[in-house]
Amino acid sequence: MFQILNTFLIGITSGSIYALMAISMVLVWRSTRVVNFAQAGMALLSTYFGYEVVNRFDSYWLALPVAMISGAVVAAFIELVFMRVLLKHSNSGPIASIAPIIATLGLLGLIKAFIGFFWGNQDVNIESPLSTVGFSIGTQTLSLSPMKLLILIAVSMLLLVLTFVFQKTNIGLALRASAYAPEISRLAGIKVDLVRTFGWALAGAAGGAAGMLQTANGNGALSPDSLEFSLLLAFGFIAAVIGGLDSLLGAVFGALLLGLVLAFVLTYVGGSLVFITAFVLLLVVLIVRPAGLISQKAGRRA
Amino acid sequence: MSLRIENLSVHHGAIHAVNDISFTVPKGQLAALIGANGAGKTTLLRTLSGLTKSSHGTAHWNSLNLLQSKPENSVRNGVSHVSEGKSVIPELTVEENLEIGALWRRNRKEMIESKKSVIEIFPRLGERLSQRADTLSGGERQMLALSRSLMSKPELLLLDEPSLGLAPLVVEQIFQSIRELTTSMGITVLLVEQNAMGALKIADVGIVLNLGKVAVSGSASTLMADPQVRAAYLGY
Amino acid sequence: MHNLKASNISRFFGFILFGVILLIVGNSVDELRVYQGATVAMYVVAISSIILLTGYSGQVSLGHGALLAVGGYGAALLRNNFNAPVWLCFAGAVLLAALWGALLGATAARLSGPYLAGTTLALAVGLPSIANQFKFLGGEQGLIFDIGLPPASLGEMFSLYKWFFWIASLAALISMWWLQNLLRSRYGRVWRAIRTQSIAAELAGIHVARSKILAFTVSAGLAGLAGALLSMTISTVSPGAFPLTLSFALATGAVISGVTTLGGVIIGAVTLVAIPEIADSIAHRIGASENVTNNLPGLLVSGLLILTVLFVPNGPVEQMKHRKKVHI
């Protein structure tokens, strides 16, 4: 019974980090109709900025917002100087449908090389700001440490803020309108290009937060080739797709589901099957409910 | 104060969709632009609002150069385009669909006032504010599209086929509302229609487009009396 | 018809001639170049496998490294457990990977664009780590894949690297020859029809799904061959030999070659092999730090990829053809 609770806690924590990553993929997808495979790379870069702050000012609490802001700036910059040119250049021709995918891969490579230039390929460390030892109940230790608690609180707050922005503010309405119908939005007077950049910036901020939290949730090590970030990339994508790519709520739901399923497989079946499970889950969803578990529109042709 | 189009041409690849068109719509008038499928009506509207690039000619609304202005900026200068086929966003609520028309003004108070005044014109929308737009009937959607456009307080309205796919009774209502916009609010309207009869009935002036060129133009009543126009476009 | 046959024959002799040139070149350069030649040949096979998939049938794979791994492991298992002759190892690698490809293709046919890209990407992230978990695959260290010494009849001076080069070049020549013919056949036309006009193709009575699966199968078979060749040149198969970066490098090679035509495949293959060396010499010349030296190849490859997508999206070969047409 206690083990079930612990597994649940582990799953929810990692799932909530995947949720941030999935959200950042969904935000980009909604604003530009591009699945950004460089998203994890951008998150990694912002985490390195966070690492610099931790290094100099010894404050994780300062580093977290810095990582988010730098993530937003980097993403906005990429959208402005890169994606716009790309989408204008490659909107026709035989590889029009794959050009953005390939280009984001190139971007991922550039970002990794850039990180390597400045920080090297060896691990650097961000120490966890809070204890990672679980609370104990009687003689047993709960898989919920102050750090994990922080992660859960931070993610929930970010989700609340995002929901508020999306549902209650003008920029949120502009974001939604531009995502669903860019042309009608332009005719209604919305500067869709600007709104897109803002969508990317939000995505970058979410990615930055995901990177900082993921690093602190793991062993604190950070490197351009770290498996953690490959997993963040893969699981973020899988979670976003499970949720239906178009829906923020779906992304969160998909991520928590993924986190839980993986945690239970890890505890009760074995580590060797974790990845296969994620992959099978992805395939099953794609085949059985191609529009995602939560979706408004049918069809998965993009 | 008028909409002035001079020698306007638009190409779609090798196709000459709009071919050297010139006409003027004086302020406060309702102009009906009629013609068969593929006559270049929609292309002309899209060019005027900035969605499509022109290849030659000029188009001005007062002093605003329409061909150099992006759609989102034209709206700010009083030119609003309601595109073909009930241009509402189905995933948003009726209220949100209205609000996006006035977002650019960044003025909460004005937005609420505009909302109130369009609901006065189309009370049925007022009853459905919190419903998603895809729950509306075809006629209601067209009303919503018109209202969203009115939210930006336009001086010139470019309407693309508002009667498309609507029941005859509803068409009449929509046409009456459009006439009202000109008569009581002084909005200049360029109305593109396949329903030539209905459009000419409410219009002050008519322009007949054929294969990208202006075939005939004149006051609506003259056109309706013109035997050639009657035979080719009005069907009697 | 006669014309077609004539051009077929001349093309065949073209390939033979190319092979002879390779032989002569292979004899006159040093060991390192010969080894690099073998790697180029491996890349030619791997990249053409992606071009077939992406350029001809319109499907994207960011996870070809996983299929290469299947081929590599298949060949090594055959060699180690059954002592199979080398050619049989390669054939086995092709078949095993093709089988996987057929399974994957059956799923892939239902996906498109970013969904397929992401799914194959997820596979590439995951598959090598799966290899870690099974004993008979040798875990982290992987398996040895030793094709043995070159036959004595080639003389004592004949080095192992040259033997690799011969095998890899022969494999590349045969597969390119076969692929060219395949693409000129009915299948090739069907694939192109699907890529450009999927719906129209379906209306014209083409089984789109079936054709896509076939493309995936053939592509996977080629990838398996490339995997076996790669394993041969490094004498082992291990999860570490098929990292995500390999999959990305192959996709890059395909884009640089021009995904819509096989003609440029050698460009991509040579680029992939040459870039580390170019990067090395640049880093050396400017006296760069270790960090820069380590990451310069990645920077160059990614930069080249982005520039290609932006400015010559259809690849250099198509671009040149296009230019010629415009001038004439």
From TrEMBL, chain A:
Tell me how this protein sits in the membrane: Multi-pass membrane protein
The listed locations are:
Cell membrane
Any single biological process term in GO: amino acid transport
Its keywords, alphabetically, are: Amino-acid transport, Cell membrane, Membrane, Transmembrane, Transmembrane helix, Transport
Which cellular components does GO assign to this protein? plasma membrane
The yes or no answer to whether the keyword DNA-binding is present is no
Has keyword Ribosomal protein? no
Any one GO MF term held by the record is:
transmembrane transporter activity
Question: What's the short name of a Pfam family annotated to this entry?
Answer: BPD_transp_2
What parts of the sequence cross the membrane?
6-27, 60-83, 95-119, 149-166, 194-214, 226-245, 252-269, 275-294
Entry's family note = Belongs to the binding-protein-dependent transport system permease family. LivHM subfamily.
Q: What is this protein called?
A: Unannotated protein
Q: Which organism is it from?
A: freshwater metagenome
Automatic annotation (TrEMBL), chain B:
What's an example GO BP annotation here?
L-amino acid transport
Q: Its Gene Ontology molecular function terms?
A: ATP binding; ATP hydrolysis activity; branched-chain amino acid transmembrane transporter activity
Domain (ABC transporter): residue spans on this chain: 3-236
Q: Which UniProt keywords apply?
A: Amino-acid transport, ATP-binding, Nucleotide-binding, Transport
InterPro entries (alphabetical): AAA+_ATPase, ABC_transporter-like_ATP-bd, ABC_transporter-like_CS, BCAA_Transport_ATP-bd_LivF, P-loop_NTPase
Concerning Pfam families, the annotation shows:
ABC_tran
Please give the family membership noted in the entry: Belongs to the ABC transporter superfamily.
The name this protein goes by in its record: Unannotated protein
Q: Which organism is it from?
A: freshwater metagenome
TrEMBL record, chain C:
Q: Which PANTHER family match?
A: HIGH-AFFINITY BRANCHED-CHAIN AMINO ACID TRANSPORT SYSTEM PERMEASE, HIGH-AFFINITY BRANCHED-CHAIN AMINO ACID TRANSPORT SYSTEM PERMEASE PROTEIN LIVM
Bilayer disposition of the protein: Multi-pass membrane protein
Task: Name the principal localization, coarsely classed.
Answer: membrane
Compartments it resides in:
Cell membrane
Q: Does the keyword Ligase apply?
A: no
GO terms of molecular function: branched-chain amino acid transmembrane transporter activity
Q: Which GO terms describe its cellular component?
A: plasma membrane
Q: What is this protein called?
A: Unannotated protein
Source species = freshwater metagenome
Recite the UniProt keywords alphabetically. Cell membrane, Membrane, Transmembrane, Transmembrane helix
Membrane spanning segments where? 12-29, 35-53, 60-78, 84-106, 113-131, 160-179, 213-234, 246-275, 296-313
InterPro entries assigned to the protein according to its UniProt record, in alphabetical order: ABC_transp_permease, LivM-like
